[in-house]
Amino acid sequence: MRAKNENERIACRYMLWLFVLLLASAAASANDRPLSITGATMGTTYSVKIGTASPGLDPLSGVVTENGRSSIDVLHELIDERLAEIDQRMSTYKVDSEVTIFNSSKSEDWFPVSAETATVVNRALEISAQTNGAFDITVGPLVRLWNFGAGSKANPTVPTGTEIERTQSQTGYSNLDVRLEPPALRKRIPTLEIDLSGIGKGYAVDQIASLLETHRISDYLVEIGGEIRVSGQPAHRSGQANWSLGIEAPRSDTRSVSQVLALTNQAMASSGDYRNFFEVDGVRYSHTIDPRTGRPVQHQFAASTILASDCATADALATAILVMGPNAMEFCNSNGVPALLFERTADLRSISFNSHTSDVFPVDQLRSLSESTAPDFAHILAASIIVIGIAIVGMGIGVIFRNRCIKGSCGGMEGLTDEHGRPLCEGCSNPSPECTNDPTLQQQQPAN
Ligand code: ADP
Ligand code: MG
User: Fold this and answer.
1) Does pTM top 0.85 for this prediction?
2) In what order do the strands lie in the sheet with 243-248?
């Protein structure tokens, strides 16, 4: 009887160590979540997530003890500084930004700007040419006429046809020149203005992505006001190979995700007519202007989601493709642009939509919301192991350190018998009446 008891204690010890190991691996898996940095910029919010396998940071603590500050805090500061620098160059809201100063100048000579403003303007002009003017950063005066952007009033009115024509004559991307070396811009008409709102957030996303990469962070998600770029993986140990990006349903009455796209090493940007708009006499006027008509877009296409290798391109194309509306799919298919478009099935207030995808859109990576929110098997397993492990470790500690039997009512154990039909008493702290007369039991039961 003694030898049997000794074996049980040894087995119990092994079980304890096994569960300690399982517990440690389950706890590590539960900790396998991206680190997060959030803040405000460009009149909106930003979010940066860092995958747990990025070599640039200690993924579990994020701590570098230099000057007593964590590497996450240092990174947060670097991100804020870089975003402030871009905003100071490209904002149309700041009175002293490079763009505002260029806009207020009436000179038709070369106007020196920073290399990055020239780079963004150059990319914007390329996209204007590619989209046949659907994307046009010279729409600024029209944006203002329609009461959007900096200086918008509380009660907007619809401008007259004459006002629209007059304002439209001050626009046109062919009236703008850019030079990269030395960086400068030039107006061909003195009243020309630029508005980088349709490409600036995407450009800033790309810049934060390269800032992370210079700090050896290769697994990340960068998001500014809904424009996103992802690289690598969110979590390695639990085998999440892609980032899950929510695509918003184009509804102005609520914020909800309609689908989830699993993506990595790509950028995604969306444009829609359902957030920034005003209504007069049942007509919706959104902040996306068709430069060819001088008016906000008026069609059944409510939103576009575009993928590209860089976010500046995705951002600008999302606006351009929303402008194109019914002609967008033909453009996307002939230019190899991955696009998802939402088209209203009825009037403006309709909450039912048809979605259309271009030929190269990765539909196999799209999932419905219910599929994507189901807890994955790895996390259910990790949680189960933790709960069972804690229980068994607790019991094991009792056995090892106090040589104590498993406590509790024992339920069915009380009724168990050995090969001779005698009750098995030693496993139970609440023994059956037969046990109380068993001399071996008296011997094994430690004093409470
Ligand atoms: P969205 O979420 O619709 O992409 P963005 O903020 O990225 O919104 O860009 C929309 C802004 O771009 C507008 O507020 C306006 O300042 C500017 N804009 C509007 N129409 C155009 C256009 N056709 N081309 C370039 N920029 C535009
Ligand atoms: Mg955009």
Assistant:
1) no
2) 243-248, 257-263, 366-368
